[in-house]
Design a protein that fits this description.
alpha/beta; Lysozyme-like; 15% strand; six-stranded mixed sheet
Amino acid sequence: MDKNFYNEASAKKLGWEPSWFGEKYFDDKLTRAIKKWQRSRSISADGLCGPMTFRRLWTERQERKIVGDYCINNGNSYSNSIVYNGEFFPIEWQKFLLWSDDGGISAKPGHFYDYSTRPRRNIRYFVNHWDVCLNSRSCQEVLDKRGISVHFLIDNDGTIYQTLDLQHAAWHAGSARTNRASAGVEISNAYYPKYQAWYVANNFGERPIISDAWAHGNKLEPFMGFYPVQIEALKALWKAIHLATGIPYETPLNQFGKTSTKYVQDVPYGKFEGFVSHYHVSKNKIDCAALDIHELLQDLKDS
């Protein structure tokens, strides 16, 4: 692979510059600089600024911004319904914005499968992601640059954004097979504990630190978890999704009846219906490790 050509094409698509790594040109010096940057952050040092490296780099640059740069809603009214195939279904949450609302966030046309003229889309399962970004608007900027999308975003303060009609298949979970059968949410969380100071400085408070999480049989290094308000927002969203689509309150379980921490082939390739984490549909993903979907769904069943 011509790494210089790859990096130049990546920069054109994603909007980064060699200067972000302290270099001027797309040459071998840049490749070495990227490798050095990757090693310092425990990323596979291949010298290529691909999607994973770019997202880490983008979040570090966004850390310099203050929350005021991402002011939401500006006092305008919130919505109270999610949209599926042009129909409105209630959501019991105070801070919810549609893409058409003032302060809303919209997926870019061309970054999802547009099923406007097709029969109502059958959605089998709902995929939960964390965004490795500092807030939802920053996440959407990354999605736009990468040419992908997601149906919902949950911000640090619990605000939920719907970015496109559930009728459309967002490009959020890798394969076309998975995207066409699912809907998804990106929950804001920069993941790495070094960003804790940013959250405190911007008046969100400290995030919980998760130190005993597993994915695909591997114990993960400590990372930041979700705020309680984000978990409550997520449950409200799941309830609305259940009402709108009929997706059952189920999740893959292990032999002990707990939320599975591994890839489950029956989700992308079988007939499973329910709520899952990204790692359930991809062996290369770890989000949302430690999110006990089974326990949260039980709360909804009991409510």
